[in-house]
């Protein structure tokens, strides 16, 4: 292969690698706001009928993230507990040390699509038969982060 041909292939490989990478997380501490958007959506979707004690876990979060998420959720979802306040016993979620039924909401990890769009794995667990891990689309709308709902794939148009 000629030198020009090798350069062309190197350029194509470099361009393909750049096109396949995802952008870094946006500037500032927006991860807590993205997680809060997912957790609010899930609470509305899964807990609207029940008033169960609810625990929250953030997958892959750095130290202290849960406090920032709790702060972002407080106005709309007060009374959330950290994941340690719940226990899973035989596939059922309870408040730790009791037989009081509870629910567990999870969020994360975040996969950034653009600086104003992300896909986030959510999670809901109450019983073995009501355990879900949907993937959600979250976007920045003006100055706030909004969960648009589950990502639907594999559906022919």
Helical run tally: 3
Gyration radius over CA? 20 Å
Q: Would you identify the regions where 5 or more consecutive residues have pLDDT less than 50?
A: 5-22
CATH architecture: 2-Layer Sandwich
Q: What's the helix-strand series?
A: HHEHEEEEEEEE
Could you tell me how far the N terminus lies from the C terminus, measured between alpha carbons in angstroms? 43 Å
Major sheet description: 7 strands, mixed
Supply the number of structural domains.
1
Choose one word for the global shape. Answer: globular
Write the layout of secondary structure elements.
Elements: H1 3-20, H2 31-46, E1 54-58, H3 65-73, E2 81-82, E3 86-89, E4 92-95, E5 103-114, E6 117-125, E7 131-132, E8 135-141, E9 144-150
Parallel strand pairs: 1-2, 1-5
Antiparallel strand pairs: 3-4, 5-6, 6-7, 6-8, 8-9
Helix pairs in contact: 2-3
Describe it.
The chain is α+β, with helices and mostly antiparallel strands and 157 residues long. The chain has a single domain (27-150), classed as 2-Layer Sandwich (Double Stranded RNA Binding Domain). Helix content is 27%, strand content 33%. The protein is built from three helices and nine strands; from the N terminus they run H-H-E-H-E-E-E-E-E-E-E-E. It has helices spanning 3-20, 31-46, 65-73, and strands spanning 54-58, 81-82, 86-89, 92-95, 103-114, 117-125, 131-132, 135-141, 144-150. The strands form two sheets. Strands 1, 2, 5, 6, 7, 8 and 9 form a seven-stranded mixed β-sheet that branches. It has a two-stranded antiparallel sheet with strand order 3-4. Helix 2 crosses helix 3 (65-73). The chain is globular. The relative contact order is 0.17. Mean pLDDT is 83; it is low at 5-22.
């Amino acid at each position: 292969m000629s030198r020009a041909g090798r350069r062309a292939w190197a350029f194509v490989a470099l361009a393909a690698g750049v096109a396949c990478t995802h952008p870094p997380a946006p500037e500032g501490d927006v991860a807590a706001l993205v997680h809060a958007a997912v957790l609010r959506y899930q609470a509305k979707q899964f807990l609207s009928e029940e008033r169960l004690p609810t625990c929250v876990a953030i997958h892959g979060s750095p130290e202290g993230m849960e406090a920032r998420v709790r702060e972002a959720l407080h106005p709309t979802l007060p009374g959330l507990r950290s994941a340690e306040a719940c226990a899973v016993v035989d596939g059922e979620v309870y408040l730790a040390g009791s037989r009081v039924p509870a629910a567990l909401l999870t969020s994360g990890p975040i996969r950034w699509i653009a600086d104003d769009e992300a896909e986030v794995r959510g999670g809901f667990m109450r019983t073995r038969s009501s355990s879900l891990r949907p993937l959600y689309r979250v976007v920045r709308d003006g100055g706030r982060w909004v969960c648009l709902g589950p990502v639907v794939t594999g559906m022919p148009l």
